[in-house]
Amino acid sequence: MDGTLLRGRSSFPYFALVAFEVGGVLRLLFLLLASPLAGLLYYFISESAGIRVLIFATFAGMTVADIESVARAVLPKFYSSDLHPEAWRVFSSCGRRCVLTANPRVMVEAFLKDYLGADMVLGTEIGVYKGRATGLVCAPGIVVGKNKAQALNKAFSDACMPEIGLGDRKTDAPFMKLCKEGYMVPAKPEVETVSQDRLPKPIVFHDGRLVAKPSPLMALLTILWIPVGFLLACLRIAAGALLPMPLVYYAFLALGVRVTIKGTPPPPAKKSTGQTGNLFVCSHRTLLDPIFLSTALGRPIPAVTYSLSRLSEIISPIKTVRLSRDRIRDANMIKKLLEEGDLVICPEGTTCREPFLLRFSALFAELTDQLVPVAMINKMSMFHGTTARGWKGMDPFYFFMNPSPAYEVTFLNKLPNELTCSGGKSSHDVANYIQRMIAATLSYECTGFTRKDKYRALAGNDGTVTEKPRLEANKVMGC
Description:
Layout: H1 12-44, H2 47-59, H3 64-73, H4 75-80, H5 85-93, E1 98-104, H6 105-114, E2 120-124, E3 126-129, E4 132-137, H7 146-155, E5 164-167, H8 173-176, E6 181-184, H9 216-242, H10 245-254, E7 258-262, E8 279-282, H11 289-297, E9 303-305, H12 310-315, E10 320-322, H13 327-340, E11 343-345, E12 356-357, E13 371-379, H14 395-400, E14 406-411, H15 427-442, E15 445-446, H16 451-458
Parallel strand pairs: 1-2, 5-6, 7-14, 8-11, 8-13, 9-10, 9-11, 12-15
Antiparallel strand pairs: 3-4, 13-14
Helix pairs in contact: 1-2, 1-3, 1-9, 3-6, 10-11
């Protein structure tokens, strides 16, 4: 896998991702401190000895369910961004595909089977006791060198050995000799990676806090930055929560948070004339979308949300109202809020990090004709401000822990009456039109995915049941 299917030969970044996402910053620090020992053993003793150290430092004491969750929800995004184009061209052209890897099978199998179409994964097996990884390796040991050849012999009979074998180092020679043809992948890390549109299934959803793949240097910088970043996040949150909204934009700017405003928003509704409020219909990137919309407008705009942690409600500088997912009750509540003034809603119902828009719920289009589409986009360099598996109360802190986070708010033209329900359009037509309008502005792609699809993909359930169906690639559709 490393150096063959992937351009990079080091597996440290992927062990570091598991360490941080399951064990937190202390486990990442432990892995980082153990990595020099792993490197010495790798170069002076054996490849197997070095990998054993990384496996123990990463997995010892972790629950297998947590490891599988990270392997399914976090690692595929990083693995797919490092695919070797020539190795992938050969691999994808074969009928049946088997991957031999020194990496723990539990860590790589989800990506290889779900996203690359591998039929079989022969990797290192780790010890498990009462649902927790021991950090030790099961017999026959690390799948390298002769162990790869033995694993291949065991999986295939002499009469049907693989036709093509791919490798990248001398220790791959034993298993490659068993194949009818063998090819070495040259070490060229500068080669461009495979584009996402060439994968069998697009990666629409992914989880995890880290934005960049953590090399040893990046892991060290992350560990050193977290205490400083947390204090900076507290200061930024306090500025947003305590200062008057007209001053928040300037406070954010002084504290390194960039807010870019494009387009011309409509004036606030006037209750004295009987005019109902404008409904700002936003794309959903983080739970901070309504706050940055209010920052761009210079006045607090109440927001309706599907779910929000108690901590986020407490520190929010704007009024937040929970939706009950009861259609009639929610509709009446939104109508009442619009009678009081402007309102913001994110009809996707959940966030998406990739350049896709999830399906827009059509309820909002039935309630008012004063619809203002808003395209929201953000940029983070170190931490993601969303999570599906972790505690959502930390989402705003992680966003503001980035050294210089940014938000871009683009106000689009208010929908003309003929494109609303009053003009004869169905609510679904209105919702789909606004989805396409925002997607075109952001150069995103529209999808039919929903909140349930996201949580099934990342958490293995839809919020109420524990099942693990796979996403279907054909749900992605052009705008």
